[in-house]
């Protein structure tokens, strides 16, 4: 099985850059910050798979990285406490993309310029949950994804709208509160579940 080929620079940083992995099988795609800095830059994972989970943990830098049709179990997890810039997730696999903070209690959402594109999920066909990154910095498919703001919990009279506490909207608002995030991007429910 293929291993990720990190190099160590003079400062002790782990760097993986300028590599395309295509149709490779990895034993794991779990990447943690083990040194001062772990950087993945200009890397493509195309139609790859892993026996273990796909997880990018807190503190890893991802810049211009493509994950296309990655079979890493049912979920690719990326910490919203990692540093992401121009990351694209596309295709049918994995079934779920979850981006959320590792540390719920101490998480503080960062601010970004509105022109920065952090994550592109516009061609991802799976189910996405992105908590803790601004919706304006995520390229979405408006037919599949929606930004929800935590402030809506108090600004909207959900009862008068007939929207109960276990609806799509209110469950995702609760998730934002638990993760201490002011907004998130979520896949819309299937048409048969949209009335809930």
Automatic annotation (TrEMBL):
Top-rank lineage group of the source organism: Bacteria
Name of the protein: Uncharacterized protein
């Amino acid at each position: 099985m293929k291993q990720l080929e990190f190099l160590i620079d003079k400062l002790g940083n782990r760097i993986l850059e300028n590599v395309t992995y295509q149709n490779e099988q990895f034993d794991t795609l779990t990447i943690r910050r083990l040194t001062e800095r772990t950087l993945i830059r200009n890397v493509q994972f195309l139609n790859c798979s892993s026996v273990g989970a796909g997880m990018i943990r807190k503190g890893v830098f991802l810049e211009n990285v493509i994950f296309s049709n990655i079979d890493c179990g049912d979920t690719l997890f990326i910490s919203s406490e990692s540093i992401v810039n121009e990351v694209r997730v596309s295709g049918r696999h994995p079934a779920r993309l979850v981006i959320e903070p590792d540390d719920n209690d101490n998480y503080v959402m960062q601010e970004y310029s509105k022109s920065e594109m952090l994550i592109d999920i516009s061609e991802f066909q799976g189910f996405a949950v992105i908590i803790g990154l601004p919706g304006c910095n995520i390229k979405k498919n408006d037919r599949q994804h929606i930004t929800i703001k935590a402030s809506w919990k108090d600004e909207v009279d959900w009862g008068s709208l007939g929207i109960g506490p276990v609806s799509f909207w209110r469950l995702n608002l609760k998730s934002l509160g638990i993760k201490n995030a002011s907004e998130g991007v979520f896949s819309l429910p299937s048409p048969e579940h949209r009335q809930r």
